[in-house]
Amino acid sequence: MITVDTNTRAGRMIAAGRITLTFRSPKTGEHITLIARASAPPTDGSKKWHASNLNDAKILWIEVPNQGGWNDKVAKYTRGKGLVPDKNADPARVFCARQLLAYVTGQPTAEGLEIFEENHCGRCGRALTDPESIAIGIGPDCRGMDTGSKHETKVRPAPTSVERQILMGEREPVVPETFEQLEAVTDKKGREVPRTFEQLAGRVA
Question: What is the DSSP letter of 32?
Answer without folding.
Answer: E
